[in-house]
Amino acid sequence: MREILVTGTAGFIGFHLAKALLAQGEQVVGVDNVNDYYDVQLKRDRLAQLDGKERYSMVELDLADRDSVRRLFADHQFDRVVHLAAQAGVRYSLTNPEAYIDSNLVAFGNLLEGCRHGQVGHLLYASSSSVYGANKQQPFSIHHNVDHPVSLYAATKKANELMAHTYSHLYGLPTTGLRFFTVYGPWGRPDMALYIFTKAIFEGRPIDVFNHGKMRRDFTYVDDIVEALVRLLDEVATGDESFDPLHPAPGSSNSPYRVYNIGNNQPVELNHFIETLEKSIGRSAEKNYLPLQLGDVVETYADVSDLEKIIGFRPSTAIEDGIERFVQWYRAYHRSP
Prior knowledge:
It is built from eleven helices and 13 strands. By secondary structure, it is of the alpha/beta class. The strands form four sheets. It has a seven-stranded parallel beta sheet with strand order 3-2-1-4-5-6-11, sandwiched between helices. The radius of gyration is 19 Å and the shape is globular. 44% of the residues are buried.
């Protein structure tokens, strides 16, 4: 039985992925530092859903601690590593840059070293749609240039892709980066718009609607993200034989390195998103319209053709279905009427 390391299992996507892998018979080692960026109780409650499951073990450690990561890889022989642990959030990076340097850069470097020396067969890691930054060409394609991030969070994710490519080139470590597009669903993060809006509506408080609701996001349901990750586990990255070093394309490499968009390929305007949420809850929201926030982008829209070509799958959960499932979970978890 192979052993799979999933980092960030107390987090939103990592929790869902660990559940899915266990359900299909994999042996999973989860890692998380359970920090207090948002409600620690929610993280503990996620972990409680995994605790005691056969073939699952949890290691609580900080990936920025080099010695702890070395011990982790010395104690296990991982066939696959899925790195989802990171300091999330665009706006938080404006006031807490050190958290991103430690969690997204130092930790990723330690993990790459662990994978290299541990001879891991495939490393998958979370990147982000934020790497597209100032790019206005839509839909975002992995073949577009991503040299103009507009937040430190985005810069760290771009740096992760560059670091991964270096290890793929120098040491033959197969790496696959996944650019996630606005993931939502049950057990989601409290700092994300869906959770913030839902909580405010239930509590009768106004919601802040930035850019006057004219932003568009490629909202992607968490089950679709997990399905893609599971399918990609054994699609081990290889070098692109058509790569031209005289005209190097951003989305290609002659090293065992790949990067893919994972998005719903159907951007939704924020105003429609809120209307759908109001219908699902059965209440109207009081809206406080505000200008665009610093570090934010007006639209995200994923070109997922490369992903679909490789695994025969593209995210497709309708926003109406996804929001309804989230609201059902929220009512149950928070015991809201």
